[in-house]
Amino acid sequence: MSVMNVNPTRMEMKRLIGRLKTATRGHKLLKDKTDEMIRRFISLAEENKRLREQTEQELCSALQAFAQARCTTDGRVVEEAVMMPSRTVTLTCSKRKVMGVDVPSMQVSDSGGELYPYSFLSVTSQLDDSVRGLNNVLLKLVRLAETEKTCNMLAEEIEKNKRRVNALENIMIPQLTETINYIKMKLDESERAATVRLMKVKDIINK
Amino acid sequence: MPNKIAVIGDKDSVLAFRAVGVEVFDATTAEQAQSLVKKTIADRYAVVFIAEDLAEQIPETLQKAKLQTYPAIVPIPTGVAPSGFGMQGIKSDVEKAIGVDIIFNKEDK
Questions:
Q1: What number of other Cβ atoms are within 10 A of residue A68's Cβ?
Q2: Residues 6 or more apart from A116 whose CB is under 8 A from it?
Q3: How far is Cα B8 from Cα B74, in angstroms, rounded to an integer?
Q4: I want to staple A127 with a disulfide (CB 3.0 to 4.6 A). Which of A123, A191, B50, B58 is the partner?
Q5: Using H for helix, E for strand and C for coil, what is the string for B15-83?
Q6: CATH fold of B5-80
Q7: CATH code for the domain in which residue A179 is found
Q8: Is A184 inside any structural domain?
Q9: What is the total count of domains within chain A?
């Protein structure tokens, strides 16, 4: 490691020792933070995976039913049927902090009302299946979105944090230690030089 | 705070979402999807569901959105069976955070 470009003075050494203390403390704190973040991330990622497996299956079957409905009835009729929904989904969104990261937190509420916004006369029952399935899966989808986003952001933060820890551990701290050592050596050296000079002067005077 | 949900995908497959009160945007090509994703970010949507096959084609745009709290852009399967792209996303997150994928490997054994 390279020694920093500093004046080898006692002042400078004192300053550097202070910095080294802060760096060591910061390093420990950041390392603990990473550990905790990873612990939380693992449970979140497992939940994420579970949710995704569930929703993907349900969503596929709902969309498949819709495709069948479109095949059996005229496309325009189906389009018209779903054009004016009688219920709206509203999200109540806020931010939540997980280990200092802003993650979304959402609450779904639908307005209630009739689930099927069309007359049963014009379309087949597959469309009913599809709409019912989608309605059921929507709640889970929003949950999934929330979890997945949290996972994404935590992963990003963990990576950043790791980089910080590594920078402190492998660059900052060794560099500081080495510079402090260098200054100490220099100071000792000049002290010895001063002593020797004094002894020499004493010799000369005694002669 | 944003409070809207959008679905981006091939109209034939995702139109059904409109019946449950979600806004549907039609996109069949990567360019269309890209401009729609940008639009949904600008219009402050909270959740954007995007068809897996489209999401696969515009990774850079989605990557940019990953750093913000909102919107949460989630790939969803629209075909007969999930293509595994969504799972791939979780996997890469785990790999990024931990270094090795311990969640998916565990169950293979």
A1: 16
A2: A128, A131, B19
A3: 10
A4: A123
A5: HHHHHHCCEEEECCCHHHHHHHHHHHHHCCCCEEEEEHHHHCCCHHHHHHHCCCCCCEEEEECCCCCCC
A6: Rossmann fold (3.40.50)
A7: 1.10.287.3240
A8: yes
A9: 1
A49/B1 touch (CB, cutoff 8 Å), yes or no: no
Q: Provide the pLDDT confidence category of residue B12 given band limits of 50, 70 and 90.
A: confident
Whether B16 contacts A131, CB under 8 Å:
yes
Give me the interface pTM, i.e. the ipTM.
0.84
pTM: 0.82
CA distances from A153 to A48, B44, B78 (A): 13, 18, 25
Distance CA A116, CA A131 (A): 7
> Per the structure block, which two tokens stand in for B63?
């990557």
- Which residue of chain A has the CA closest to B97? A155
Q: Is A71 exposed, middle or buried (0-12, 13-18, 19+ CB in 10 A)?
A: exposed
Structural domain containing residue A200: 10-206
Interface of A with B in 121-160 (CB under 8 A): 127, 130-131, 134-135, 138, 141-142, 144-146, 148-149, 151-156, 158-159
pLDDT, residue A30, reads 93
A4 belongs to a structural domain = no
In Å, the largest CA–CA distance within chain A is 127
Cβ atoms of residues B78 and B51 within 8 Å: yes
Strands (E), chain A: 89-98, 101-110
- pLDDT tens per residue, range A12-57: 999 999 999 999 999 999 999 999 998 998 888 888 888 888 888 8
* A141 with B15: Cβ contact below 8 A: no
Facing B90 at nearest CB: one of A49, A82, A153: A49
